[in-house]
Design a protein that fits this description.
mainly alpha; about 70% helix
Length: about 150
């Protein structure tokens, strides 16, 4: 046996489309926002500034755990993994009712609802785009081999 390693042939991967990168960035930002919000609520719960300490701690931990879904999806989208589109789409679909509820409030949450709604719709459009689908290697129904 030779001490040399055989070089691995490089596959001719297509460059990542800008739309896919933008969808990954939006999913990553949503995940980051969930981590920041969860950490904020968790700190309020631990320091005792919240009305209900147990509820604040539980809510903060829940938001941080929920942040894993869009963060993993963003990483998968950047790596052009076909599995990543499902979690990314689920994240956007879950964000739409949250945005709607924020818009129904009579407070400073309305601008947050607008931003969240715009980001969710934009990410959904980017994720179902034909260029994104092709880059992820997802074939539509009835296209077994192309």
């Amino acid at each position: 046996m030779s001490a040399e390693q055989t070089p691995i042939p490089e596959t001719a991967e297509e460059p990542r489309p800008l739309r896919l990168t933008a969808a990954a960035v939006l999913a990553g930002l949503e995940g980051l926002a969930l981590v920041v919000g969860g950490a904020f609520i968790l700190v309020l719960g631990i320091t005792g500034d919240a009305d209900d300490r147990q509820q604040a701690v539980t809510g903060g931990v829940t938001l941080i755990v929920l942040a894993l879904l869009p963060l993993l999806a963003a990483r998968g989208l950047l790596g052009q993994r076909s599995w990543s589109r499902g979690p990314a789409v689920i994240t956007q679909i879950m964000a739409l009712p949250v945005a709607y509820n924020l818009l129904q409030s009579d407070s400073m949450a309305i601008p947050g609802g607008i931003v969240l709604g715009v980001v969710a719709v934009a990410a959904l459009v980017l994720l179902v785009n034909q260029e994104t689908t092709r880059a992820l290697g997802i074939r539509g129904p009835g296209r077994a081999s192309e």
